[in-house]
Prior knowledge:
Layout (H helix, E strand, L loop, with lengths): L1 E4 L8 E2 L3 E2 L5 E3 L7 H9 L4 E5 L14 H25 L7 H17 L17 H19 L4 H12 L21 H7 L2 H9 L7 H9 L20 H15 L8 E2 L1 H10 L7 H8 L10 E4 L4 E6 L9 E6 L5 E9 L8 E4 L5 E2 L6
Parallel strand pairs: 6-12
Antiparallel strand pairs: 1-5, 2-5, 3-4, 7-8, 7-11, 8-9, 9-10
Helix pairs in contact: 2-3, 2-4, 3-4, 3-5, 4-5, 4-9, 5-8, 7-8, 8-9, 9-10
Amino acid sequence: MRFISVTQAEPGMKMGQTVLTEDGKVLLGLGVVLDERLIQGLRKSGVDSIYIDDPHTEDIIVQDVIRPETRRKAVEAIQKAVKQITNSNKLTRRVSVKDMGLLFQKAFHEILEDLMENPNVMIHLISISSTSGMMYHHSVNVAVMATAVGMSLGYNRQQLTELGIGAMLHDVGKVLLPPEMFEKTHRWNPNEIETAKMHTRLGFDLLRKQHDLSLLTAHVAFQHHERLDGSGYPQGLSGSQIHEYAQIVGICDVYDSLTTPRPWRKRFMPQDALEYLLGTGDTKFSLRLVDAFRKHIAVFPLGTSIVMNTGEVGVVCRVDPSIAHRPVVRILKDGRGNDISMPYELDLRQDLKAFIAGFEDESLFTVSGFGK
């Protein structure tokens, strides 16, 4: 399969991955053959890209690092908590969620079991969903990445659970912000940004009152926007004042936010987002933690269409985790843009003169200027 922009989608193409709605339900399923009506439906839902299957790439399998059922249950857990918080706040002006800890322990247990089957997991699947459900899917993505980092750092099961549930709930305070803020299709103004920053305190106040959640989980929500140099919020903490769980979630939060499209900007390329994190190492983020994170991220994910320095176009078909920036590429077009009748594979670990110059469809990506 290969990853393409929805603008490149044509009737007759077959879906290579399921696209989910905001609440984890299927918007368009695996194997569905596209027609013009379905393509327009994807665009209206805010989906900017999809995976398709075609004869030249049908053997390239891009799998999520957790099972689809695990992801669905995690999204449902977050959605259920959000509904309870919203409803209780409307009725009593007080917020309480019955058995929140148990709800998230069950959901996270399945995430952890899936990840423990492959502790050296590398994340290839690019986040694809309706833009209306960004918070739910973002929270699951951050939990998966943070747990993978925790595993590489040697965390025990209790630590992984505190970290993972904290990651799933790191943005829960946003539920208590004015809902109209999240309906906007433009960048927030300075006043809105200050309002948005309140989500860290609101999330902490909510989670610390839950008797069945660790206080460290609540501190992830409180501190995930703090930065090593003291430039973060809400308290301007620095260095070791910031709990390591919150530092890890902060790194994963930034990466997933940058590589996910927003109504006012396109997604950033994975290598650009990773370069940003590495470039801020030991100022904004701990370089040790960024390096642990880097080991689990495919800079050029499987199935992505890339352009070589020679002008040839290909698809990433294999990645060696130890040298992820030099994958094996299946060349599909020559340097003049003509289809090749017999595609061939180029191993960039062996051919050191060749390198990837960019992605084929750069209209999917923001190419300069970072921001969430």
